[in-house]
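Could you show me some protein's one-letter sequence and the numbers that encode its backbone in two labelled lines?

___
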Amino acid sequence: YIFKMHHFTPSENSKSESQNKNEKPFDLIEILRNPYVKGSVYDLGIIIEEGKLGGVPFKKLKAKATWKDAQLVMNPIELRALRGELRGSANINAQDFYLRNQDPTFSSTLRVNHLNIGDLIENVKPEMKGLLGGSLDGGVILSGEGILFDDLIKKSSGRLQGRLSDGYFETFKILKGQLDDKVRQGELNKWL
C-alpha cells in the first residue's frame, strides 16, 4: 500500500490547525480503535508533502512502514524541517493500548543535518525566542508515551549529541528572565 497525504495536522487537544476546512486532522486514537487495524499486517509507503507536528512545520516526509503485532515500525524515515533534514527510524508500540488501555509508546533514532535551533525554539518554546540559535548536525534519540503531542513532550526523554555551528546562547537574557520570575513571585524580597 502507498499512503499519500498532501497536508498532515495531528489532533492536538482537539484543536485543528488544518488549513483546509474540509480536511480532518490525523487522529491516532481513531485509527487504533478501528477494528481492521488491531490484528492486521500492513506494509506501507508513507508520503506526506507537508504538515505540522507540535507546532513544528515539516515537508517531504517519506517512510517505509510496517504495522504488525500492534507495532508501527518506520524504517527508513526522512523529512525536512527547521531548514534541515532528519533521517532515521521510528517505532510506535500500541500493544499496551490494546491489552491494558495505556498510551502507546514511541521511540526514534534520527540523524539531523543543518537543523536550525532558533526555529526549533521559536516553534516549541516561543517565550525563549532569540535566546538560542545556530545550526545543529548530529543525532537524536527520543522515547516516550502518549497520543497528543503535549502528552508526548511531557512524557518523553532523549539524548541529543552533535555539533552546533554559528551558535549562540544569550545567558544574560535567560538569567534576567529567571530574575524577573523571582521578582513576580515575591521570592526576591526574601533576599533583600
Observations:
- The chain is about 20% helix and 50% strand.
